[in-house]
Amino acid sequence: MTIEVFADIACPWCYIGEAHLEAALEARPGLGVERRWRPFQLQPGLPREGTPRDAFFEAKFGSREQMDAAFGHVTRAGKAAGIAFDFAQLSGAPNTTDAHRLVLLGRAYDREWETVEALFEGYFAEGRDLNDALDMVAIAEHAGIPGADAREMLGDDRFEAEVSQSQTIAQRAGISGVPLYLFADQFALSGAQPVEAFVAALDRAARTANGIAPSDP
Length: 217
What we know:
Blueprint: E1 2-7, H1 12-27, E2 34-39, H2 53-61, H3 64-80, H4 97-108, H5 112-124, H6 133-143, H7 147-154, H8 160-172, E3 180-183, E4 187-190, H9 195-209
Parallel strand pairs: 1-2
Antiparallel strand pairs: 1-3, 3-4
């Protein structure tokens, strides 16, 4: 069974959704599941170096008060999922092209999901700058990617085409927000759904793979 995960590293609900999916997979250990990261940028037009934190988020939410309220809501949801968000440490609003490229490099080392986790944790909990080469190399090494290869990739255009292609595929499919999870090329689950919703989706996909109608028990 494949699960295509359309997500962005700078998306807190994608981080929460990933934690919920991990918990669902732990509840169904017998399933043979292959997860595939599909790059999606919520802000593809940001400068390659990113943009300052407060200016971006105050413009997005309308005021500092509304920004703080939104961050508080996400922090509480994250705590329930075992995630320690620290929005006070956010380095800025990053252009996530290089973050997606690092995930694809991680795939080459069989460290795809370790890289996803390291990027989420680095950005949302540790204040890492996803547009800073030193921070990105440190994240790569934490995920098990050789630092020299990560450094070299950040200096070239490896995986640029794949990131752009994934964005185009998502847009043509009508995907305008993430996270979105495509189960076995059959049906999708959108948003950071509860663990129970992911378990139900896994069960449905397993029944479909076994030739049982999705509505059957």
